[in-house]
What does this fold into?
Amino acid sequence: MNPVHHPTEAHWLDYVSGQMDGASRILLEAHLAFCAPCRRAAAQDAVPGGAQLAPAAPEPPPALLQAILGRLDSPTQPRVGTEQLPLPEALWSLFPDLQRAHWGSALTWGFRFLEVPLPGAETLYLIHMQQGRPFPRHSHRGLERSVILRGGLRDEVSLLEPGDFAEADSSCTHTPVALPDEDCWLLASLEGGIRFTGWRGVLQRLAPEA
It folds into this structure.
């Protein structure tokens, strides 16, 4: 079954033209792994530029092409230490080496996250929520984009399942809850982080700025 929530046409134009930041690009590639209609749409958006570049592209020597292909390794399932991450195989090649990464918790039982390092100053987060567990109510300091990789979650306005793409700006305040039948895994990018409500918000405001 294809996802219900998709990136916009503007997202795909930025994607195929190379105008998208690395974190958002990985999120769209994660969505493409689940969504056949978007794969077709993105391919169609790429046709005009490809048609212009193709006549000028030299044909690589067969021996060189075979040498390059021979050096490409099959992606392996990402791990954190000895723990294998239960992610779709189509996404394995998107992740750098996470063997020495450390889980964070945001002071929330049943919730943990990894910072996935990317070139430059960009950061992507791999998030794991145990089935049925909520993430504390919060708002956003900037734009948040996410893609569900496994399981699902719901908040006050939407239900998100594997492959679904979501975008929330600073006007959004919500309480995401993992669906009760399976742990939820998702990728997310954040501009400026989040603002907690309640006692977590008090602690957050009292904490010194990094």
About this structure: The chain is about 30% helix and 25% strand.
